[in-house]
Description:
The chain is an all-alpha fold. It has 2 domains: about 1-90, Orthogonal Bundle (Rna Polymerase Sigma Factor, Chain: A), CATH 1.10.1740; about 95-165, Arc Repressor Mutant, subunit A, CATH 1.10.10.10. It has 7 helices and no strands. It has helices at about 5-25, 30-45, 55-80, 95-110, 115-125, 130-140, 140-160. The longest helix has 26 residues, at about 55-80. The chain is globular. The termini are far apart. Mean pLDDT is about 80; it is low at about 80-95.
Amino acid sequence: MTETGLEFRALYREHAPTVRRLLARLLPASEVDDGVQEVFLRIYRHRQKFRGEALLTTWIYQITVHCAHDLYRRQRWRRWLQLGASYTEERPHTEDAKGQEEAERVHKAMQQLSFQDRTILALFYWEEFRLEEISKSLDIPLGTAKSRLSLARKRLKVYLKEDSP
C-alpha cells in the first residue's frame, strides 16, 4: 500500500465515527452509509485543496455538511417520486423509559425542522462545536451562525410544545 493510502486509512479510522454520528443526525438511517462513503470519497478527491488554514476537523465537517445537504436533496426527490416509500430514522438510545420518551420527542421535533436548522443544532448540541467552529464549517459569518442557532432553538421549542403531553 502506498504512503498516501496508509495516511488516508488512518484519517478514515480517526474521523469516520464522527462523520457517521453527524450524518445520522442529519439524514435518514438508510442514507448514512452512503453519506460516509461519499464524504470520504470527496475528502480523498480534494485532499490537495486542504490548505491548513483551518483545522482538519473543520474542513471535514464542512465537507460532511455539504455532502449531507446533497444527499438530503436527493432523498427528498426520491421520496417525492416514490410515494409511499418508508424511510426509517435512527433513534437515539437512552437507558430509562422517561429519557427514551423525551429523546423520541426531541427526535420527532428535529425531523420537522428544516435541514439548515437541524444542521446547526446538531453541530452545536450533539457535536459540541463552538459557534466559531460552526461558522467555519458552514462557511458563514459568525453573526449568521449566532442568529441561525437562535432561530433554530425557537423553532425547536415550538415543535416541542406542540408535542408536549
